[in-house]
Write a structure and sequence with these properties.
alpha+beta; three-stranded antiparallel β-sheet; binds NI-FE active center
């Protein structure tokens, strides 16, 4: 049989625009993926937007990278600015940052399991938007299926509550305005504390009684997915949720696991970004992000993605809840589709329980902000975690302006293209070996992709309409004119 190339473009039920191309062939009598390419199809451009602006703009602007994980961008950015000014924030700021970020983690994990991943395994109701859909390899009996669909609906309500919980301190979700360099701009009023306490109890109950049992149900029905989607097995975590203002003690700690063995310390200096297969100038090749550059070049021979390829000591690393939980010693070191789902569900519970502890640590009588003065020059680094994995912001300040800014998102790590050595990114590698039962409905490929919870909005962001494209504005009508000033007949 000749090999077949399948293209899924766009992959749905994720954030942003991802194209996946897999080559399927027969190996030892099993039809399976033998090669894969992941393409981020839009250019993000925030690095260019931030140049020469006030550093104080960075937390607000970088939150607009994504509406799903804005809290993490706000935090990474304020951390980068504070490290450039060598400033530690007050205890109340540490706690309220944890509360808003943790609310976002819980919301995002529930979103991923029920609304993005589950429909690869479960039949939705017989109506749009659930139908038409692929029917391959759906294993749940009708009554189990119905329970999971009920939980899909319940999960919408729980996500709303998680958003409302975070907004109590964040001021708004998504894009909370409360993350500012120097601390936190909300006051820890007792009514907010008691409101938060109620919400978190309800969310813990949902995670314990619904989410975790559903994740176990899925694992029991699809145990073969503990053997699918492994990839390199390299895991990396920057760590997150400070337990004190020094930033040294975290709920989920920093480190790397190199295909097995003991957790190693992580050195930020070992991170570079490679662009051989990315639509960026070769002058950007293998730069450390502290002195990184993001110079688009399209088209470019052999390049196939707007994502760069971040590497640690030259190797590809997977990031995300599984990486965090394994590095922290909370999850046995196994890497697969089902382990990603299990670790994510268990992390949701760990974070929700920690929220309960932190909200009790707030001192309502104390402040949460200290004056932040923009340094005349300097460099800063903010390493934290977003729900989807390790997130880093690097800033250079000169003449009190941003001279350079670089962001490496979790999806850049996971869905990166090949590096300069020609080695696949983590998701590409994880797809290799995936069995494909039905070439018309390669649902197994989707399950591997979704287990990483990719977000291409974080990775890429700005697009230029095609030549001749027509622009329609909702609400009022202008003469139909394309971008190039040509009028078109009705
Ligand atoms: Ni757009 Fe994000 C998370 C970040 S993923 S969701 O989590 O940063 O690249």
């Amino acid at each position: 049989m000749p090999s077949t190339t399948l293209t899924i473009d766009p992959v749905t039920r994720l954030e942003g625009h991802l194209k996946i191309q897999v080559t399927v062939d027969l190996v030892n009598g099993v039809q399976q993926v033998v090669d894969a390419k992941a393409t981020g199809t839009l250019f993000r451009g925030f690095e260019a937007i931030l140049k020469n602006r006030s550093p104080l703009d960075a937390p607000d602007l970088t939150q607009r990278i994504c509406g799903v994980c804005p809290v993490s961008h706000g935090l990474a950015s304020t951390m980068a600015l504070e490290s450039a000014a060598r400033l530690l924030v007050p205890e109340n700021a540490r706690i309220m940052r944890n509360l808003v970020l943790g609310s976002n983690f819980v919301q995002s994990h529930i979103l991923h399991f029920y609304h993005l991943a589950l429909l690869d395994f479960v039949d939705g109701p017989n109506m749009p938007p659930w139908q038409p859909s692929w029917s391959a390899d759906k294993r749940f009996a009708p009554e189990q299926n119905a329970i999971l669909v009920d939980h899909y609906v319940k999960a919408l309500e729980m996500r709303r509550k998680a958003h409302e919980m975070g907004a109590l301190f964040g001021g708004r979700l998504p894009h909370p305005p409360a993350f500012v360099p120097g601390g936190f701009s909300a006051t820890p009023r007792p009514a907010r504390i008691s409101g938060f306490t109620k919400y978190v109890a309800e969310l813990i109950s949902f995670i314990e009684n619904v989410y975790l049992p559903d994740a176990d149900r899925l694992a029991a029905r699809y145990p073969d997915y503990y053997g699918i989607g492994k990839g390199y097995g390299n895991l990396l975590a920057y760590g997150v949720f400070d337990e004190d203002v020094s930033g040294q003690n975290k709920l989920l700690r920093r480190g790397i696991l190199n295909g097995g063995g003991a957790v190693q310390p992580l050195s930020a200096g070992s991170i570079t970004e490679q662009v051989t297969y990315s639509w960026y100038s070769n002058s950007n090749e293998n730069l450390a992000p502290a002195s990184g550059a993001t110079t688009p070049q399209y088209p470019k021979p052999a390049a196939y993605s707007w994502l760069k390829a971040p590497r640690y000591s030259g190797a590809a690393y997977e990031v995300g809840p599984l990486a965090r939980m394994c590095v922290n010693g909370d999850y046995a070191l196994r890497v697969s589709v089902m382990d990603r789902h299990q670790a994510r569900a268990q992390e949701a519970l760990k974070v929700a329980r920690a929220l309960q502890t932190w909200v009790g640590q707030i001192n309502p009588g104390a402040g949460a902000y200290q004056t932040y003065i923009i340094p005349a020059s300097g460099s800063g680094l903010g390493l934290t975690e977003a729900p989807r994995g390790a997130l880093g912001h690097w800033v250079q300040i000169a003449d009190r302006e941003i001279a350079n800014y670089q962001v490496i998102t979790p999806t850049c790590w996971n869905a990166s293209p090949r590096d300069s050595a020609g080695k696949r990114g983590p998701l590409e590698e994880a797809l290799v070996g995936t069995p494909v039962g039905n070439l018309q409905e390669p649902v197994e490929v989707l399950r591997v992709i979704h287990s990483f919870d990719p977000c291409l909005s974080c990775a890429v962001h700005v697009m230029r309409p095609a030549e001749g494209a027509r622009i329609f504005a909702l609400g009022h009508y202008h003469a139909e004119e394309d971008l190039h000033g040509h009028n078109h007949p009705h």
